[in-house]
Specification:
The chain is mostly helical. The chain has helices at 3-39, 43-79, 83-110, 112-119, 125-142, 145-161, 166-186, 198-222, 240-272, 276-312, 316-351, 357-390, 394-419, 424-431, 433-446. The chain has one domain. Helix content is 83%, strand content 0%.
Length: 458
């Protein structure tokens, strides 16, 4: 690459990646703040919220599966300046989002006991009762947030795919600030608010999500930019061939994310056979890891958008070169952040003074285990979310995700949790071997360059 191309590459990475990383940082901080505030209620409420949040995350991952690949189509259509096709894709995403959020709301709102029972498998009857009690109260309220969460996800996907990343980041910041304010008031009854515990955490999420979504909708209504002036009457011009073209690439991604999240849920179910302390420590560690993932979120999204644009322009050679630079950046950043995570594991765990000593010790050791896997996890995520999906190589990404997870990770999680007395951090270390297997699969695929395709010409 020439020096000019290098400058252009890094300028675009910073322009796209930093606002998205900032948005992800704000969202992750929200999750950490939520977890920290709820942790003050004890291990059982924290375990209950972890279970309830996991099911909401299931919806997010399904939508991410559909929308990330549909977003790639929008990015490529943006590269070829095909506004009408962008509007068609956006209309389809709105319909998909409405269907899935309605289904998830019905399942969770009217059957919260069933959802909690899937994960609450410990042998302590009193502990189980309290987790079920708190979990049902949390799920009954948080289910209302599924509609606004999906709507904001769809609108932000459109904005980011056409390289407008500042505005959705600002909205994310405002949403997090409002959520944090309401959490502070409603969980423990500060500033004259009633003390509602886990219900207060759920109410705060619902209200802040609704406000954020309203801001995004108002922007779509009042902006003069043509790409956002979606004419929903064009739904009648969407042909079966157009839908089939999108489905061919997006369905494998949706299945990928669904099966991946089922795997994460299976991990939590397996941990549920150990104790509430194990669930609580894993929940906190996952939220801390969300902060670590900030850098990768920015890189992966920038990778998908930038390479998608170049493929849409039919500049295939430059797409390859940019792909190599992204792979290197993700691994190097993973090594750097892994070292920081290892060194800060102890201080982080000491902050959660309201939880038991066992939870704090587990948290420290789990974070130290994750620190060794960060470079590999970063590389895998960038390949699957960025390079492979940018070129529509979604079937291979599906296979690379599913086989290691379900043939290695999940079976090991249940075997070790049920049949051994190994500490939770040792179990985490063993089951993450599936990431190493995945790393070999996706890296080999990347250098085959079978993913380098212009989807707009297919």
């Amino acid at each position: 690459m020439s020096s000019l191309q290098n400058r252009d590459f890094y300028r675009k990475v910073l322009k796209i990646g930093i606002p998205i990383a900032l948005s992800q940082l704000i969202s992750s901080l929200l999750s950490v703040i939520d977890t920290f505030m709820v942790s003050g209620l004890g291990d059982n409420p924290l375990a209950a919220v972890a279970i309830g949040a996991n099911f909401g995350f299931f919806l997010i991952m399904i939508m991410f599966g559909f929308l990330s690949e549909l977003g790639i189509f929008i990015a490529q259509y943006w590269g070829s300046k095909d506004i009408i096709s962008i509007h068609k894709v956006f209309t389809i995403t709105i319909i998909i989002g409405a269907i899935f959020s309605s289904v998830f709301f019905a399942i969770v709102h009217f059957n919260p006991d069933f959802i909690i029972s899937l994960y609450n498998n410990g042998d302590n009857a009193v502990e189980q009762w309290w987790i079920n009690y708190y979990g049902v109260r949390y799920l009954s309220i948080i289910s209302f947030s599924y509609f606004t969460m999906t709507a904001s996800f769809v609108i932000m996907m459109l904005m980011r795919s056409v390289e407008r990343v500042i505005f959705p980041t600002v909205v994310s910041v405002l949403t997090v600030l409002l959520n944090t304010f309401l959490n502070y008031g409603l969980i423990n009854g500060n500033m004259g608010f009633p003390a509602l515990g886990v219900e207060g955490a759920a109410i705060a999420t619902v209200i802040s999500g609704a406000v954020g979504t309203l801001i995004l909708i108002l922007f779509m209504v009042f902006t003069k930019e043509e790409v956002y002036k979606v004419k929903f009457r064009r739904v009648t011009t969407i042909t079966k061939e157009f839908i089939a073209k999108l489905a061919k690439k997006s369905l494998p991604v949706a299945i990928n994310e669904t099966i991946w999240e089922l795997g994460m849920s299976a991990y939590l179910m397996a941990i549920g056979f150990i104790s509430a302390e194990a669930i609580a420590s894993v929940q906190i560690s996952n939220q801390i890891m969300g902060l670590v993932w900030v850098a990768n979120a920015g890189l992966s999204t920038a990778c998908a958008i930038m390479i998608g644009n170049k493929l849409g322009e039919n500049n295939l050679e430059l797409a390859k070169q940019w792909g190599k630079k992204f792979v290197s950046l993700s691994f190097i950043s993973g090594v750097f952040l892994g070292i920081i995570l290892f060194m800060s594991a102890g201080p982080i765990s000491s902050v959660f003074t309201n939880n038991s000593e066992a939870v704090r010790e587990n948290l420290k050791l789990i974070l130290m285990v994750f620190s060794f896997y960060v470079p590999i996890k970063f590389s895998n995520a960038l390949q699957i979310v960025g390079t492979l999906r940018a070129g529509g190589d979604t079937r291979f990404a599906l296979i690379a995700e599913i086989i290691p997870l379900w043939m290695v990770g999940v079976p090991l999680a249940f075997i070790l949790s049920i049949n051994t007395s190994l500490p939770i951090y040792v179990i985490i270390a063993i089951i993450n071997v599936e990431e190493i297997i995945k790393f070999v699969f996706v890296l080999k695929r990347f250098f085959s360059y079978k993913w380098v395709k212009n989807l707009t010409l297919e």
